[in-house]
């Protein structure tokens, strides 16, 4: 039997995968549009034309309403929704988190999802909100664990079973919960109760929650970020190893007259132009869209196009080994996303273990790039260079450099490396000619380390006048430091 989840390509913590379900295989990362069984703005089967490969709906809403429930039991979930691809069903836990209780037990809702033929079944986990006392988070986690263990014993057929990871805003609880569930062998791992973090733009904490859960899970398991539907944060979440998202946002935003872009959301009333090439935005002007009778539906359609366009770009970026460049661009859309990016790179040591050892050219996109996993990896490998005799370190060629025993190139944010490696990854990096403070900090500290690791070599560092950094004083103590404009002109 082949695995339920197969990974085809990787970049940073992100991956392109194939998830097998009873109603077909889906390529990840992907978004599952949320379908409300009561209201259908866009017919489910039409979702495919936007790029949707799998939908998600709420089994509790179906269970509670007799008209829906009887049709679902008779014709199945796929018959009820009129969709023949994979469908994931949620359990009512979200209603539990909003209303405080639900009129169904874990066993009842599991049995119902099984009967109606859900492709991915979710137990009745307890979504513990952020910032609660540690004790409450721990206690609720214990109840969730019991229900999940019961679910794992109960669901044994070919339907997939999800094991939601809870633990509030405590990374240690998230990691503990994840490693416990890892041993129980769920098919998909949703990260739960993150909606409040996303709603209040707490992306730095979201990054810590995702990283903690991922560290507890097997790197080969598919991960779903529950309730994440805004495309501006997909790249960041994918880089951390999230494979599935679900979007009610496309419809909720449309109802409010909001127009989604990867750089944020506009209110349609405030738009004079439609900055998107989708069929809706090509056909209508901003004014026509504002006045359209079916404005809500048109906005929902645009929102879905924008959502899936980003998924395709993310997948292409993974193929190209350019995911982190995309993440760095996207995280400039909002300062709180930038905080998320900074947090992402505090996990670079972990990401470095997941990141392919060679990939396409590294692009320096700003001070955060200095903390990328590739740069960290170079710093850890400095011991591999063994240098003796006279050594010159320079940026671009200088006169007389060939008379030295060793020629090294200085490139921020990496540091100094032997010239013969210039075309080799990651030294073939595209970097700014005018390194900023962060890039210089990493590069100069690595250069200093290299000098200290090679006491048998005598170093000359030909430095640019623009390089202003306190570490240059330290380098001066161990090497001859000459500014390029003062370099001998024979
Ligand atoms: N939808 C949004 N968050 C959650 C969660 O934590 N658990 C479940 N089951 N559904 C959700
Ligand atoms: Zn559009």
Automatic annotation (TrEMBL):
Q: Where does substrate bind?
A: 125, 193
Q: Which Pfam families match?
A: TGT
Q: Which UniProt keywords apply?
A: Glycosyltransferase, Metal-binding, Transferase, tRNA processing, Zinc
Transmembrane domains' residue ranges: none
Q: Name one GO molecular function term.
A: zinc ion binding
A Gene Ontology cellular component where this protein is annotated is: cytoplasm
Q: Which residues form the active site?
A: 90 (nucleophile)
In this chain the tRNA-guanine(15) transglycosylase-like domain maps to 13-336
Protein name in UniProt: tRNA-guanine(15) transglycosylase
């Amino acid at each position: 039997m082949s695995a339920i989840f197969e990974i085809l390509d990787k970049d940073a913590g992100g991956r392109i995968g194939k998830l097998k379900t009873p109603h077909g295989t889906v390529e990840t990362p992907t978004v599952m549009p949320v379908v409300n069984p009561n209201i259908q703005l866009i017919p489910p089967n039409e979702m495919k034309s936007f790029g949707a490969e799998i939908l998600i709906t709420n089994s509790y809403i179906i269970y509670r309403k007799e008209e829906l429930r009887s049709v679902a039991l008779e014709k199945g979930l796929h018959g009820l929704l009129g969709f023949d691809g994979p469908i994931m069903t949620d359990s009512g836990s979200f209603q539990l988190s909003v209303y405080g209780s639900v009129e169904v037990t874990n066993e009842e809702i599991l049995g119902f999802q099984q009967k109606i033929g859900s492709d991915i079944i979710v137990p009745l986990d307890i979504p513990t909100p952020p910032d609660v006392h540690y004790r409450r988070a721990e206690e609720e986690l214990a109840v969730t664990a019991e229900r999940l263990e019961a679910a794992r014993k109960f669901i044994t057929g070919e339907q997939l079973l999800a094991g939601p990871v809870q633990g509030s805003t405590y990374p240690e609880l998230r990691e503990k919960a994840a490693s416990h569930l890892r041993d129980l062998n769920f098919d998909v791992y949703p990260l739960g109760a993150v909606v409040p973090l996303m709603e209040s733009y707490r992306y730095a904490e979201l990054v810590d929650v995702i990283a903690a859960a991922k560290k507890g899970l097997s790197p080969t398991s598919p991960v779903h970020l529950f309730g994440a539907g805004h495309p501006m944060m997909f790249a960041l979440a994918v880089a951390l190893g999230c494979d599935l998202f679900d979007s009610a946002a496309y419809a909720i935003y449309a109802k409010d007259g909001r127009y989604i872009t990867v750089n944020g959301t506009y209110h349609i009333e405030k738009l004079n132009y439609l900055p998107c090439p989708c069929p809706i935005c090509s056909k209508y002007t901003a004014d026509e869209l504002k006045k359209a009778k079916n404005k809500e539906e048109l906005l929902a359609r645009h929102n879905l196009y924008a959502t899936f366009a980003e998924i395709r770009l993310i997948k292409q970026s993974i193929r190209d080994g350019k995911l982190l460049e995309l993440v760095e661009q996207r995280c400039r859309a909002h300062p709180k996303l930038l905080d998320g990016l900074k947090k992402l790179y505090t996990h670079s040591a972990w990401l470095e273990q997941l990141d392919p050892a060679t990939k396409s050219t590294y692009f320096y996109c700003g001070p955060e790039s200095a903390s990328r996993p590739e740069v960290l990896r170079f710093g850890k490998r400095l011991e591999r260079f063994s240098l003796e005799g006279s050594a010159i370190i320079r940026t671009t060629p200088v006169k007389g450099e060939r008379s030295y025993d060793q020629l090294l190139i200085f490139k921020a944010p990496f540091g100094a490396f032997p010239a013969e490696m210039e075309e080799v990854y990651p030294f073939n990096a595209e970097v700014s000619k005018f390194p900023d403070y962060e890039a210089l900090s990493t590069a100069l500290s690595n250069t200093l380390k290299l000098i200290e690791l090679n006491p048998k070599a005598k170093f000359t560092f030909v430095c640019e006048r623009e390089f202003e950094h306190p570490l240059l004083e330290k380098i001066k103590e161990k090497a001859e430091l000459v500014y390029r404009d003062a370099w001998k002109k024979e």
